[in-house]
């Protein structure tokens, strides 16, 4: 569940949804709508990634 708080998860979901359009062309409009939502979430949620090193540590 922690992955849902990272932008890359939502961007990946958007990419998968666009790929599904090739398999399910009859649902292209719905998939586009879901892609927009996932893309917006990816743009709003910050990417956490690896923790920053402590100050003074190289």
Secondary structure elements and pairings:
Blueprint: H1 7-23, H2 28-44
Helix pairs in contact: 1-2
Labels describing this entry:
single chain, 2 helices, mainly alpha, 58 residues, 59% helix
Rounded mean pLDDT score: 88
Helix content: 55-70%
Ranges where pLDDT stays below 50 over 5 or more residues in a row are none
Rg (CA only):
16 Å
Largest sheet: none
**Order of helical and strand elements:** HH
Overview of this structure, please?
- The protein has 58 residues and is mostly helical.
- The chain contains 2 helices and no strands.
- The protein has helices at residues 7-23, 28-44.
- The N and C termini lie far apart (32 Å).
- The model has no long low-confidence stretch (mean pLDDT 88).
What is shown here, in short?
By secondary structure, the chain is mainly alpha-helical.
């Amino acid at each position: 569940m922690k992955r849902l708080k990272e932008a890359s998860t939502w961007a990946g979901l958007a990419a998968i949804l666009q790929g599904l359009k090739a398999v399910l062309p009859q649902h292209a409009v719905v998939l586009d709508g879901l892609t927009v939502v996932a893309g917006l979430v990816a743009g709003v949620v910050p990417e956490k990634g690896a923790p920053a090193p402590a100050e003074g540590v190289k």
